[in-house]
Design goal:
40% strand, five-stranded antiparallel sheet, SH3 type barrels, mainly beta, 1 helix, 60 residues
Length: 60
């Protein structure tokens, strides 16, 4: 039996941390199994795997 990966629980609009890219960003959407994030000050969005996204409370 395969082990399930943890999924993020960070709500849309909240600040999160992408552990793979070591970047903070605002969760913009969940689409096609990915988390869409945008830099805090604006800029180009990027995607992350849900298991790589943590709430800022988890990394603080």
């Amino acid at each position: 039996m395969a082990t399930r990966r943890p999924t993020t629980t960070v709500p849309v609009g909240q600040l999160a941390y992408d552990t793979r890219r070591e970047r903070r960003g605002i969760v913009m959407d969940y689409q096609d199994g990915l988390v869409w994030l945008r830099p805090e000050g604006g800029g180009t969005e990027w995607t992350a795997e849900p298991e790589d996204v943590r709430s800022m409370a988890e990394v603080s």
